[in-house]
Amino acid sequence: MALQPPSPSSYALIPERSLKGGELVLAVILELRPKQWLKNGLIFFGLVYSLQLFNASLATRTLLAFVAFCAISSAGYVFNDLRDADLDRRHPTKRLRPIAAGQLSSRTAIALAGALLAAGSVLATSIGLAFAGVCAAYIGVTLSYSLWWKNVVLIDIFCIASGFVLRAIAGAVVIDVPISPWLYFCTLLGSLVIALGKRRSEMQDATAESFRPALEHYTTGFLDQLILLTATASVIAYSLYTFFAENAPRNHLMMLTIPVVLYGVFRYLFLVQVRGQGGSPEDLLLADRSLAASVVVFLAMSTAILYFQLSTG
User: Fold this and answer.
1) Which of 85, 109, 124, 309 is a good FRET partner for 49, with 20 to 30 A between their CA atoms?
2) DSSP code of 38?
3) Calpha distance 78→158 (Å, rounded)
4) pLDDT in tens for each of the 313 residues of the chain?
5) Within this chain, do residues 28 and 114 fall inside the same structural domain, yes or no?
């Protein structure tokens, strides 16, 4: 599909309802999409897997990096919602977003996005130029995704996945420690599974193509094949990581987390392929107790194993 330049009409002024006080604050908070900040939790993986979790200085830097990334990513969500407001108004759920619903005007949305981007960029630069460079790369990916790549078949999937990988890279860069390439590889494969599951869920909407043009080139069967491929590869890659990663325990205790990872992957595939969910991965994680429990158990087990190794030398 040829790249289509952004339409000027996408930026047409949106009428704003007269919201005041608490209602306006609530609309702004909803527009920031705080649920999406769960993705930024990947920034903490560098701190945990480098065995620096109890280093107060590095923990503080990582927390500030998380805040910076939340501001920058929310700026991207505001820009995307502003550009897609006309399409979102015809979507059964996206029409409720503050910009599409007319609760925030274009002028307000632009000011909000600008303030978030400026604050996040200033904070990122104060943390370090290397981290600021990763943030700049993330901004470039998300901006080009909103303008073009989300309408290009397959490229849209890799753009979504690259956002997760950049978060993992940011977590390593901010504390200036080398992280095993296995972490990036597993993050890439896992995020591809999530992105493909998201597209498959969107395919269930009979009019999905009118909301996301790239979907007209996908079929459920094709997406299922890609999900099977990437899910299998991600489980194999993680299993190999537990045995061969440089910072993995030499007694191979990390292999105990493999069944938990398998359950989490199986549960996610069940929700996507059987129940037709997955269009909003963060909502899925918060709503499905079994999936959330598998994530919590995995994080608790892997952290305990890594730091038990550290304490015992």
Assistant:
1) 124
2) G
3) 21
4) 334 434 444 444 444 555 666 788 899 999 999 999 999 999 999 899 888 889 999 999 999 999 999 999 999 999 999 988 888 888 778 888 899 888 888 999 999 999 999 999 999 999 999 999 999 999 999 999 988 888 889 999 999 999 999 999 999 999 988 767 888 899 999 999 999 998 898 887 645 444 566 778 888 999 999 999 999 999 999 999 998 887 777 888 999 999 999 999 999 999 999 988 877 888 888 899 999 999 999 999 999 998 887 666 5
5) yes
- Token pair belonging to 84: 């897609």
Query: pTM for the complete prediction?
Result: 0.87
Distances from the Cα of 313 to the Cαs of 41, 262, 293, in angstroms? 28, 29, 30
CB 298 within 8 Å of CB 264: yes
In a shared domain, residues 161 and 31:
yes
* DSSP-assigned states of every residue in 18-30: ---HHHHHHHHHH
Asked if residue 191 is part of any domain, the answer here is yes
Residue pair 40/77 in contact (Cβ under 8 Å)? The answer is: no
HSE of 269 in the Cβ direction (CA atoms, 13 Å)? Answer: 20
Instruction: Write down which residue in 163, 179, 195 finishes a domain.
Output: 179
Within-domain flag for 11:
no
**How many angstroms from the chain centroid is the CA of residue 20?**
31
